Amino acid sequence: MHMSISIDINVISCSQSISCWFVEPTARLVFMILISLPDSGNHNQSAMMKNVVGFLALFVFTGLANGQQVITVTNGETDGRWGPLETCPAGSRAIGYQTQNELDAPVVDDSAVNTIVIFCDDPLQTNLTSTPGYTGNWQNVQTCPFGAYMKSFQLRVSPAGNTTDNTAVNDIRFMCSNDRDISGIGNNGGYWGEYSAECLEGICGIETRVRPDGGLLVDNTALNDVRFTCCTPADFKNF
Ligand SMILES: *[C@@H]1O[C@H](CO)[C@@H](O)[C@H](O)[C@H]1NC(C)=O
Ligand SMILES: *[C@@H]1O[C@H](CO)[C@@H](O)[C@H](O)[C@H]1NC(C)=O
Ligand SMILES: [Ca+2]
Ligand SMILES: [Ca+2]
Q: According to the UniProt entry, where is the signal peptide (predicted)?
């Protein structure tokens, strides 16, 4: 039961990005067969058939998840376009992050979180941003304790429709592989959503959804959503 839910989450999370249709074609195909199975008159037979196909889907999907799993949350906002996927160099994964935030100010229009930078643990300490924002102050770098890495995340978001000031994503925090979270300073508006699924091997890539600066007459929101790709065991094979 739990596993079949994770299939749904991954297929849905991927549906917003064209590239995902190429990344997981087999999982998608099996999923479509699964949901389009004709409901024959014989319910026992059709239910059994769905179980068999569901099991196969799970099997194929588990193999593919080792290729490209995406973790998402459900409370992101929808303005702006998804930016490019940026990934850690092979053999490394994300162990820390930093945000650029326009913190809550008396002026009406704040955009809260603009940019999320994640730091990989390769020798060059490669940093990834996908699409960056355009304003705000850099907050402190937050890093998992030595030996731990980031495996899931949670967003604090103001839902669209705030007549005073929309900000979309206000804050983010990550869970590390030692089950301690890391968090910095963000804005207090809106609500924390649920944690994303966990990347067993850690987070290896980032895609952000940023609404570009609309100028002085627009209620800017900057970062609207973010999602991460999981590392795979193959990423660490020769390291
Ligand atoms: C990210 O890496 C680039 C290239 O090394 C560097 O110029 C930049 O300052 C780094 N950004 C952060 C936030 O550390
Ligand atoms: C709506 O905007 C106001 C002003 O910025 C803010 O204080 C409040 O927290 C926002 N409400 C929500 C639900 O985010
Ligand atoms: Ca404000
Ligand atoms: Ca705003």
A: none
Task: Give the residue, 52 or 117, on which the prediction is more confident.
Answer: 117
CB-based contacts of 55-63 (< 8 A; 24+ apart in sequence): 56/30, 57/7, 57/27, 57/30, 57/31, 57/33, 58/3, 58/4, 58/7, 60/26, 60/27, 60/30, 61/7, 61/10, 61/27, 61/30
Q: Is 130 in the pocket of ligand 1 (CB under 6 A)?
A: no
CA–centroid distance, residue 189 to ligand 3 (Å):
9
**195: Cβ–Cβ under 8 A, 6 or more apart, which residues?**
73, 152, 153, 154, 175
Sequence spans of domains, the chain: 2-65, 70-236
Burial class (CB in 10 A: 0-12, 13-18, 19+), 233: exposed
Average pLDDT value for residue range 13-24: 40
Ligand 2 pocket member 162 (CB < 6 A): yes
Convert the pLDDT of each residue in 50-72 to its tens digit. 555 555 555 445 444 445 799 99
What is d(CA 214, CA 84) in angstroms, rounded to the nearest whole number?
A: 21
- Residue nearest atom 11 in ligand 1 by C-alpha distance: 127
For residue 170, give the ligand nearest its CA: 2
Model confidence pLDDT, tens digit, residues 70-116: 999 999 999 999 999 999 999 999 999 999 999 887 778 999 999 99
- Confirm or reject: Cβ of 133 under 6 Å from ligand 2: no
CB of 168 within 8 A of CB of 220?
no
